[in-house]
Amino acid sequence: MTLARPARSNAGFDLSPPATAEKAALAAKLAPDERRVLLEHGTEAPFCGALLKQKQPGAYCCRLCGLPLFRAGEKFDSGTGWPSFTAPYDPAHVEYVEDRSYRMVRTEIRCSRCGGHQGHVFPDGPPPTYRRYCINSVSLEFVADGAPLPDRLGRGAPEGQPSR
Prior knowledge:
The longest helix has 9 residues, at 20-28. It contains two helices and nine strands. It is globular, with a radius of gyration of 15 Å. By secondary structure, the protein is mainly beta. The protein has one domain: Beta Complex (Metal Binding Protein, Guanine Nucleotide Exchange Factor, Chain A), CATH 2.170.150.20. Helices cover 10% and strands 24% of the residues. The strands form two sheets. A six-stranded antiparallel β-sheet has the order 3-4-8-7-6-5, with no helix packed on it.
């Protein structure tokens, strides 16, 4: 049974997926490595991601559609070589998909609005969630606190959240 996606998250963001033409326009702006990871479910090499050592307060947004996926306060150094988080920005902002590639069973994380591949979640994180959201840097855009969040689909940001 698949649960229906809410029209808006509890954080107030519009979660309706982009139209085919909108998604194609967003995808056309991606660099080849971003396209390979976000659209083709690839991964970047460990310890090379631009956001691995990012420590500023802010939000990590989907590189494709701009939906905020993780908060900087949830980021931790897992030692795995990819940015890791203990929880999403809002539970409705990520979707979980069983991934049986490479003879493993894992849980893939996708942006719930555009379906862009982010990484995987594992049950070996720190308290309180004991989850490790292992995310590709090229799947994310960091936005420092106080800076406007991306609004690539022109939907506006929730009250109190500036958009750009």
